[in-house]
Amino acid sequence: MSQYTLGAGLVLPDDRGLYSLVHDRARTTPELVALSRPVAAGWADVTYRDLDAHVRQAAGGLLRAGVEAGDRVGLLGRTSYEWVVADLAVLAVGAVTVPIFPTASAVQVAHIVTDSGMRWCFAETAEHLELVTAAAGGALRAAPWPLADLDGWGAATGADPAGAAEFTRRRDAVRAGSLATIVYTSGTTGMPKGCMLTHGNLFASSANTVEHTGDLFRLAGDGGGQASTLLCLPLAHVFGRTILVACLHAGTRTGLLPAVTELLPAMATFRPSVLALVPYGLEKIRKGLRRAIDTDTELAAVATGLAAATATAGDDTSGGAGGNGDGSPGRLTSRPDPAALARASTVFGGRLTHVISGGASLDTTTAAYYRGLGVEILNCYGLTEAATAVTVNQPATNRPGTVGQPIPGTTVAIADDGEVLVAGPNVSPGYWRAGQDPSEVAAAGDPGWLHTGDLGRLDADGFLVITGRRKEILVTSGGKNVTPTLLEDRLRLHPLVADAMVIGEARPYVAALFTLDPAALRALADTPDTPDTAGLDLDADGWWEHPGLLDRLREAVDDANGLVSRAESIRRIRVLPGQFTIDAGHLTPSMKLRRAQIEAAFAPEIEELYAAAPPAAASVPATVPAAASAPA
User: Fold this and answer.
1) How high is the mean pLDDT of the chain?
2) Full-model pTM
């Protein structure tokens, strides 16, 4: 078994909890901006002193309500300043935050409330308040609190010496090993499980990410000054939560946005120096930039990025694209137009140098595209059970094609069967058991090796390369192993494609299901002078069979097939009239495909893909006409 570690990392002192990050900063750098809230006039900055005061006010409200140490407190809402204050207040008094995705269904909410033993809850919208109330069925000790009301908590109470003394007692009783949160993992099968994370787990993951990446979270790369970021990741996802804690630890000015769709319009005025995103967010920005950057510039940026990656990493990690294997540019024939680069820089705010990308695999051309525009993508790897961060590339040694070296204090090993194993202070003590006593968590001891279920290898310098996931590897009836995410990541880059799922387990060949982007599809249908899609009527039954539409999708399939061997290539596709949705069970709250559920929902459509003999592997992939009725 091979393994790699960079040595000891930072750990949270045994007698401290996560709230100490804010409290300590409020004493040492009280005027430093911690968070920024979007307002009508732009951004309202919140210093560490003001944040600390607001958290104390909210914590006082929790104590007056009767929240006890170890009580589970739900948090249902999008990323916001109020979400952060509520979370920190819960942690400060020794209670346990149970985040809930704002897109969660009633069934999921009821499961989380019941399984966690939730007794209190914050919610963002009136709909959320109703959802929690109905799902809780009387289990809560009080009606859910609106997050918007937090601004008024404690404002009219004045000085309360007894309350202040109780707050201090409860704060000082929190330990690094105390349970901080139960994160219900958005599993791709069945109901989610509650992953327990301690204050020490979250700190180790966050603080060591900061240490590992140099000044990235501390200083902007434009000559100094405070680093800044826009956080649009859902705080219900541990990736977003870890980045938030990292920023609070490092002193990063952090603007809070409720959704990735609001990121691109906000960048020019906020001027972030670093971002953390999932590949979906990077793909959305890439598509959004097409309003400012023409196709030639996009292709030139990709070619420049691929050439630079080849020169940096060599042929082993470049995938053979964009170079000759000896560091020479290979396919590079042009560079992005300087005026187009300037337009992109203006959209980004002029300070952006790096994006940490995690949560899923990222298409090689997307990473190259950003590099060609002057923004480095730092791929990272982690999972909920390790408080997100396991490895991350460093700005000084970024190695394309890898997800970086382990953060300090974390050890990564490769088992004999290729599975990635993780050990360190960031590893969860385990999954929550209904009825469990939270105080038992601190005494659980070292959890040992975490078996991730991912497959990978370590290179000679300890950089991790993820090669697949056990449960997501397809094996065709001919015995060929296929990695669907490699193909899916590339398919989604086509302007028409909203999502795609590759299928072929125990089948004679590989096929794919497509959903289409509604805006791009409507724009195509509304363009009358496009000969190949003339007559495309989205109100007509069977529009998804239009030959011109299918021809355009063949472009995406050909592009994806260029990444794999003939035996792994997509032979047939099926366009679905609707979308994959969370409500229908097709997607997890973090937008991952729930493959078994999708295969069950579209079983008749999948059977059609295999009803006829496949085309030759070397030919253009065929399509199967869609059934007249919409899928269930």
Assistant:
1) 87
2) 0.79
